[in-house]
Amino acid sequence: MTTDADTGARRPGERVVILGGGLTGISTAVHLRAPWVLFERDERLGGHARTDQREGYRFDKTGHWLHLRDPAVKQMVDELLPGQMVPIARRARIFSHGVLTRYPFQANLHGLPPEVIKECLLGVIEAKVAAASAMSPSATPGAAPSGAVASAGGAEEPGNFEEYCLRHFGAGISKHFMIPYNEKIWGVHPREITAAWCSRFVPLPNLEQVIAGAVGAGPPEMGYNQSFLYPKAGGIETFTRALQTRMAGGQAHTRANPDTVDWRRREVVVGGERIPYRALVATIPLPELLKRMPDLPVEIEAEAARLRCTTLRYLNIGARGKPRSDWHWIYVPEKRYPFYRVNVFSTAMPNMAPEGCSSICVEMADRGPVTETSIRDTTAALVAAGALGKAEDLVFADEKQIEYAYVVFDQHYYQATRTIFTFLESKGIFPRGRYGAWTYNAMEDCVLAGREVAALIDRAAA
Ligand SMILES: Cc1cc2nc3c(=O)[nH]c(=O)nc-3n(C[C@H](O)[C@H](O)[C@H](O)COP(=O)(O)OP(=O)(O)OC[C@H]3O[C@@H](n4cnc5c(N)ncnc54)[C@H](O)[C@@H]3O)c2cc1C
């Protein structure tokens, strides 16, 4: 089949093709004025922002709490779900040393064993003094200003996330929370990760706030996600479904997994059919896209081989009774526990579980298969953390997996993604979304990414 794609002329039937029907793909379709066609591999749209059910228990695909900052997105959510999204003040805790403390760890040391608090405080002060001396070689420790830990920067940027933690939080907080927690969540040691991803997500209290938090006089709440919105019914998928009602001007095909992206001809092959595109918005995981693109230049193949991502296994737990504690989620840094985060959906919204019961999601640190032993250990730890009344309350524990969960921001990340994205965009392919753009982000970012790419494509067409 001949094509005039290379000439840039419009071909009959040419549309914008969207690969992947998660929030980014849906939002792209919502905002595009040009005709589009969307292909989603699964039986329904929504990607990670979906809700599973079993025996009256509902589970999002791990905690999916909606944090909104953009006024236009807030307004859209209000219009789509008037009165249906409940604002909830976050109750996030850390579970370590056998106690629950407030989030973030670094600003709420109060309640930990005294020797741990002392170690953490000394570490912060030492880090601060070291940073002050690095800034001004003539400065003496006694002359260090009582300014922010946040502003403490040495002459050089930290080389990796471990150095970032040591620089900003000191040895104690790094040892008791930052390093073990981040190793569990990312699946690699923080020294393998750069620090650039974290500025929006890791709260940086100043020294005064750290000390106040250690004596129980900390700030009420800190961090980017102090409150969230959650649907009155149906889990986070209610939001995703509402957004889908705004999709117009195209067709969404589910159970449709493209075989090939013929980037030279600008065609996608799905089930043997060739679909010409004038622009391709790729929200499927970047390696899955590249795999489908034959005859890539060798330098792109080489950079593609450097992309790393960790898989996540989690447990959907149905339980009798309500938790003893009232937190929505906890962070669990200690290695002795086989998981790093637990969400209790039914504490945020009681109808996520049958009357008087709880729906709980446990994000496992171990990347291997979940065993009977790990379920037993998890159950015991959930009792200790106040999520379960007693081990016998467990009704079921379903193992689930997210194949692409956390993109690893290692030292190759920036070079690899820059090279790949430059190549793709030169071919009319726009990688977007958490896994298309190979990044770390949240649901709102994906809605915004869809809006942005739709505007870009429509502008180019105009
Ligand atoms: C563990 C975890 C917890 C999170 N918690 C929160 C939170 O509390 N709050 C928040 O705002 N965000 C949270 N997020 C982030 C949020 O899930 C994402 O930012 C967002 O849902 C990503 O949307 P997306 O459309 O970019 O990608 P996805 O949701 O991954 O959508 C991509 C779609 O592509 C489809 N697909 C894949 N391969 C193919 C193929 N070959 N062909 C066709 N289709 C394909 C998939 O089925 C999927 O539907 C969390 C993410 C994770 C992993």
List keywords for this structure.
462 residues, Polyamine Oxidase, Chain A, domain 2, 3 domains, seven-stranded mixed β-sheet, 13 helices, globular, disordered N terminus, binds flavin-adenine dinucleotide
Give the C-alpha Rg.
Answer: 24 Å
What is the architecture of the largest domain at the second tier of CATH? 3-Layer(bba) Sandwich
- Low-pLDDT parts are 1-7, 139-154
Number of helices: 13
Tell how many strands the DSSP assignment holds. Answer: 18
In the CATH hierarchy, what is the superfamily of the largest domain?
FAD/NAD(P)-binding domain
Q: How many angstroms separate the termini?
A: 28 Å
Report the top-level CATH class of the largest domain.
Alpha Beta
How many strands, which pairing sense, and closed or not: the largest β-sheet? Answer: 7 strands, mixed
Q: Fraction of residues in helices?
A: 25-40%
The CATH topology of the largest domain is given as: FAD/NAD(P)-binding domain
Ligands, deduplicated: flavin-adenine dinucleotide
Q: Which shape, going by the Cα principal axes? A: globular
β content, as a range?
15-25%
